[in-house]
Amino acid sequence: MSDNEGEQGPKSNFSTYMAEGDQLFHKGEYSKAAESYSTALLLQPDDRNCLVARSRCYVKMGHAENALKDAEASLKDDKNFFKGLYQKAEALYTMGDFEFALVFYHRGHKLRPELQEFRLGIQKAEEAINNSVGSPSSVKLENKGDLSFFHKVKERKKTPLKSLIQPMKKDLSVQSQKTTKSEKTAKQLLGELYTDKEYLEKLLKDEDLIKGKTRTGEKLQDVIMSCISYLDTRTEFWRQEKPIYARERDRKLLQQQWNRTQNRPPSEPALYVLKNLEEIDTELTTGITEMGLKKAREVLKTVQGWSDKALPNKTEVLGNLYSYIGNALMDLGNMDKALDYHRKDLELAQQSKLMYSKSRALDNIGRVYAHIGKFQQAIKVWEEKIPLIQGGLEKAWLYHEIGRCYLELKRYVKAKDYGIHSLSAADDIGDAKWQLNASVLVAQAELKLGNSKSGMLHFEKALDQAKLLQDNDARDAIQKALQETREQVSQ
Prior knowledge:
The protein is mainly alpha-helical. It has helices at about 5-10, 15-25, 30-45, 50-60, 65-75, 80-95, 100-110, 115-135, 180-190, 195-205, 205-210, 220-235, 245-260, 270-285, 290-305, 315-330, 335-350, 355-370, 375-385, 390-410, 410-430, 430-450, 450-470, 470-490, and strands at about 240, 240-245. A hairpin with a 2-residue loop joins strand 1 and strand 2.
């Protein structure tokens, strides 16, 4: 890029400057990368991914104010853009605003709880707050619009890189002996976040506190209510065609496997694998797919050359890499090769009798089949997964996807049956999102079977859930379907 390029105008296209910026960023040349992103923004001023990319550069360069401006610009049209939320949190953290950074780490975590970045962000923000002023139990909230202890931090030892290797310890609150079914379910689903929910609800009772505002002008009451709303409805399980529980489960499993096989500090191969798996996961989930794919292939080649003695859980690592490569290829539209790698993951899992890995592979194979319209094959694979289901959320998702495939095949009785199973699982755990999805599926199947009144009832139930979730798109679509159904009935 020439020095006078800005005066003459960009000489190439947006994608070229974005790619150039990505390459420079990964080389550590942050200033030059920021220049490339700035040139790209001359061509597409409101591109949110480019704004986030430049914000990352500014954070690395120590220009936190500029980083914050870019992050907030990326959120202008979509307040739930998770990459923008993460960058805003990072910028605030860099500026030393740990309390507000914690708010946005939590907000991003509610949208994408499978991402390690948000979880580690929450942890480092908590530790920064704790190290700055001590244990929050000794601090009294003041009525000055300050949210210094918006999130209840428990005393814990600092765990920098070790937190990637050993499972995070859960700080569980003392539970009462008599607990309702819904409370037990909430505690099971939220884990350590259940304590946070209780604390947030207490904050809402402080009338002076909730009248305050953040430095960006947001009402503290709105911020707190947003987090409580998430904790009440949990989260979406199907983001970018990937069930979240699978990603989170795989990561925890891998950490547990290392913990079991190594009672000493991890060897160099283990550190190499953990570091690179985190980087691959970040690149794939933030849209740098080709770079993540390249790195996964390089790590795969390296790991294949190691002995089982050098890496005790080599099989699990290979399976994870096959899964990453398969998902990257799927995102790039290469379904045939994606299917090959997910089958390799499944083969390893079956050989070593790794049930979690088998479940993951069946997830992914079914997704590929469903994506290319081979619904019967998807059903066969996903029905094989049913005995491996772990918990009500996974059950609600899986039954819904199988039912959706049967609906596509015009096998409406089967679609209805699986929809009812999905709805029952969602009801058991009180998950409004999957109650909505399952109700719509049952309603559609009932209409195809000529049961208009039953279809209307399930659409009405779905409509209630859409309103509860404040999902305006779903609400509008369901209202339209209801109106059309009523018109058919009245004819």
